[in-house]
Amino acid sequence: MVDLDTGKIVKNYKVNNAEFLNDVVVTQDGVIYVSDFSPTNNSIYKIKNNTIIKWMGSGNLLGERPNGLWLEGDTLVVGTKEGSIFKVDKASKKISTFKDNIGVNGIDGILPFDTKSYITSDWAGRVFISDQINSTKIIDGSGEKVNAADIWYDQDSKMLYIPTFFDNRVLGYKVQGKK
Question: 39 — alpha (psi -120 to 50), left (phi > 0) or beta?
Answer without folding.
Answer: alpha
